[in-house]
Design goal:
The chain is of the alpha/beta class. The chain has a domain of 166 residues: Rossmann fold (3-Layer(aba) Sandwich). 31% of the residues lie in helices and 26% in strands. The chain is built from seven helices and ten strands. The strands form two sheets. The protein has a six-stranded mixed beta sheet, sandwiched between helices. The protein has a four-stranded antiparallel beta sheet with strand order 2-1-4-5, with helices on one face. Helix 5 packs across helix 6. The longest helix is centred in the last third of the chain and has 18 residues.
């Protein structure tokens, strides 16, 4: 038998996220400003966690740290089994291939069509590169159809509305079926029906693929998809 441990029936799967005593500071005008204080958080496979709190409470900072986009300064931050505190750049790059990101600002490439933007989310995965361009295009087209944009596949971002851009960004993040999905206000630019359809896809990813999902949102209409709601106030975890 291989040296790697095999999970036994009934045995709990390892946590996808384990944060212990995480603190973080920014420097403003030469002075350190602490934005996260002693954060402890665990997210398990198949769990949808919604992160709420007032503006400036540290939600987006925490989300970017969970994805390895911002360096951890103190405490422990284990994502998909890897410790990110003092992690090397190569380790962070490997981690990001298994993490899907949805940003408030969409971050679409303006010189790529909607389909090409979604395909970009697949091109960072070696297994998808092995399958070839045709397979990636088929997957990208299928994801655009699932977010209601099949007829916009050939459109460039400048020809899309704000809500359509957000749905392209959602399709790009979901296409590789990531083990972990991190979303920052993913429904902010969407109407009620589009927002509900988007979070239904998140729930499906968690239920069918056992992905972990952490979503920052102020949208009260989608809170019911969460397994747990975590609240941050002044950089401190006050519930969850």
């Amino acid at each position: 038998m291989a040296a790697a441990a095999v999970q036994k029936a009934g045995e709990a799967a390892p946590a996808l996220i384990t944060v212990e005593h995480l603190s973080h500071s920014f420097v403003e005008a030469g002075q350190a400003k602490q934005v996260l204080h002693d954060i402890n958080l665990t997210v398990h496979p198949g769990e949808v966690v919604i992160l709420t709190g007032p503006s400036g409470s540290g939600k987006t900072t925490l989300l970017t740290m969970l994805g390895g986009l911002r360096a951890a300064q103190s405490g422990s931050l284990r994502i998909l089994g890897a410790e990110l505190l003092q992690a090397e750049r190569s380790s962070l790059t490997r981690l990001r291939a298994d993490v899907g990101f949805i940003f408030q600002a969409h971050n679409l490439m303006p010189y790529l069509t909607a389909l090409e933007n979604v395909r970009l989310g697949l091109e960072v995965h070696p297994d998808w590169l092995d399958r070839g361009r045709g397979a990636m295009d088929a997957c990208a087209a299928a994801m655009l159809e699932r977010v209601g944009l099949a007829d916009r596949a050939g459109y460039y971002p400048e020809k899309l509305s704000g809500g359509q851009k957000q749905r392209v960004a959602i399709a790009r993040a979901l296409a590789p079926a990531p083990r972990l999905l991190l979303a920052d206000e993913p429904t902010a630019a969407l109407d009620r029906d589009s927002g509900r359809a988007a979070v239904a896809l998140f729930r499906q990813l968690a239920d069918q693929q056992r992905a972990g999902i952490v979503m920052v949102t102020h949208d009260n209409k989608v809170l019911d998809i969460a397994d747990r709601i975590v609240n941050l106030e002044d950089g401190r975890l006050v519930s969850g």
